[in-house]
Amino acid sequence: MTESAQPDENHLIAARRDKLAALREQGNAFPNDFRRSHYCDDLQQQYKDSSKAELEAAAIAVKVAGRLMLNRGAFLVIQDSSSRLQLYVNRKTLSSEQLALASSLDLGDIIAAEGTLARSGKGDLYVDMQSLRLLTKALRPLPDKHHGLTDTEQRYRQRYLDLIVNETTQKTFRVRSQVIAHIRRFMEAHGFLEVETPMLQAIPGGASAKPFATHHNALDMPMYLRIAPELYLKRLVVGGFEKVFEINRNFRNEGVSTRHNPEFTMLEFYQAFADYQDNMDLTEVLLRELAQSVLGSTDVPYGDKVFHFAEPFARLSMFDSIVQFAGIREADLRDIDTVRALAKKAGGQIKGHEGLGKLQTILFEELVEPKLEQPTFITRYPFEVSPLAQRSADDPNVTDRFELFIGGREIANAYSELNDAEDQAERFAAQVREKDAGDDEAMHFDSDYIRALEYGMPPTAGEGIGIDRLVMLLTNSPSIRDVILFPHMRPEG
Fold first, then answer.
1. pLDDT tens digits, residue range 84-107?
2. pLDDT at site 151
3. How many CA atoms within 13 Å lie on the side-chain side of 74?
4. What is the DSSP letter of 481?
5. Residues 233 and 244 sit within 8 Å (Cβ to Cβ)
6. I want to staple 82 with a disulfide (CB 3.0 to 4.6 A). Which of 39, 74, 268, 321 is the partner?
7. Is residue 432 within 8 Å of residue 307, measured between CB atoms?
8. pTM of the full predicted structure?
9. Can you name the residues that pair with 301 across neighbouring β-strands?
């Protein structure tokens, strides 16, 4: 059975509902008593070298189930979670009722079959059916097989349909699962303990971002979806868990773009008696092993570029990167009026109260970030944009911090953690002043975190890695929505 490229969908749905009504009259229209013996891909792999004669002699009995994707008359093609497989509509072995069922099936129906394995003259593996059952009647038609589901917005809104008809989408999310599984194994192998920290917080902290706010009725207090787990993870370091990590969601009430989703996944980890340079070394090993494990290569293709993870990642201070990539003289970069004018000219959002370090950061974001193609660690971020990082010993105006960029996108952010309770309290107070001045992304003052630091936190290095952007790289996906199963969208209509 074929369906035209632009069918009258309402007519087709009505016809399918009529078929379902007839099934209901016959008994249970949604049976749940079938148990398969094999997945399609298992059979394809296990018997790929078996000849037609060998299969015929072995008479291997199988039970398979899946969604009907093609109906070629004599052959049905089903798809399960692993692969596809053909089913032969054998008019000699199937009853007249089952032959009628085979001819009445619609694309998208969930069916089950029992029979023996065979191979066609063309070399294709198939099941010579001895019985056929309809397990679930699909009421909506699938997209035309020749055109597929090409509307990008529909793919995001109806991910279930996207997964049914687009093999590339399925592969993307299998890679995502493999990425997270590999990261978890890597962290555990390096002695890190996986933990869970609150996602609903009384005080949002750990990053400069605008939070989602709500209200807890029983406690009669405002609450916030977390923007980062950082301050809780560092509390655990204070408590004696010296190497911890968490893979979970963060929420930021900010814009939506090809790089940003208000709900996103992060790996965040902390290790005591280490600094930001130790984290650079660890990150390089993690990404190199991850690419090899998931892609089978340390060369990562993305668009028309290839990123080389096997080579040592470049390391460059923010100041030097602006000089190198933007061609700005060092003397000009140290003059606040000149930097402010350059930042405005570059298109940066200038509010008027920024210090030199903030203005340099804006200039970096506008002129340098897009040019950082191969894996590059940018280090020594200005003090005023790093409220939780330790100052550098040789220059109090910058911090022991890095961000990792690949393909012009930030992938990771890390620093040697500030463990001076008094310094941290002063920085929180400065952030509060920023908030009072109108900065919605400035941090709150977290007095309990200061109290925790007063008990003493060992020298510690921490890091956050954006899982979504990392998966974008490893799957050659142009938008963050391509790697999030259910991205946030405006309401339909």
1. 999 999 999 999 999 999 999 999
2. 86
3. 3
4. G
5. yes
6. 39
7. no
8. 0.90
9. 306
Residue 42 has pLDDT above 80, yes or no: yes
Q: Terminal CA-to-CA distance of the chain, rounded, Å?
A: 33
Per DSSP, the residues of 334-395 read T-HHHHHHHHHHTT----S---HHHHHHHHHHHHTGGG--S-EEEE--BGGG-TTBPEETTE
Q: Is 9 annotated as a binding residue?
A: no
Q: DSSP label at 121?
A: T
What superfamily would CATH give domain 165-313+374-483? Bira Bifunctional Protein; Domain 2 (3.30.930.10)
Is position 410 annotated in a ligand binding site?
Answer: yes
Q: Cite the residue boundaries of each domain of the chain with CATH code 2.40.50.140.
A: 9-146
CATH topology classification for 9-146: OB fold (Dihydrolipoamide Acetyltransferase, E2P) (2.40.50)
CA distance 267 to 464: 6
Is residue 65 a contact partner of residue 111, using CB atoms and an 8 Å limit? Answer: yes
Tell me, what DSSP letter sits at residue 480? G
Chain segment 469-483, per-residue pLDDT in tens:
999 999 999 999 999
Of 190, 242, 195, which is closest to residue 462 (Cα–Cα)?
242
**Contacts with 172 (C-beta within 8 Å, 6 or more apart), sequence order:** 471, 475, 477, 482, 483
pLDDT at residue 148, as a whole number: 66
Query: Which is it for strands 125-136 and 84-88: parallel, antiparallel or unpaired?
Result: parallel
**What distance separates the 2 farthest-apart alpha carbons in the chain?**
89
Question: What is residue 443's predicted lDDT score, i.e. its pLDDT?
Answer: 76
Higher per-residue pLDDT: 391 or 145: 391
Residues 6+ apart with CB under 8 A from 61: 37, 114, 115, 116
Encode pLDDT of 310-343 as tens digits.
Answer: 999 999 999 999 999 999 999 999 999 999 999 9
Tokens standing for 247?
Answer: 């893979």
Within 40-142, strands assigned E span 61-71, 75-79, 84-88, 110-119, 125-136
DSSP string, 141-209: PPPPTTT-S--HHHHHHTHHHHHHH-HHHHHHHHHHHHHHHHHHHHHHHTTPEE----SEESS--SSSS
How many residues can be counted in the chain? 493
**What SS3 class is residue 423?**
helix
Three-class secondary structure of residue 79 per DSSP = strand
Q: For residue 205, what pLDDT band results from cuts at 50, 70 and 90?
A: confident
Encoded amino acid at 455, one letter: Y
Contacts of 429 (CB under 8 A, 6+ apart): 445
CB-based contacts of 51: which residues, under 8 Å, 6+ apart?
Answer: 119
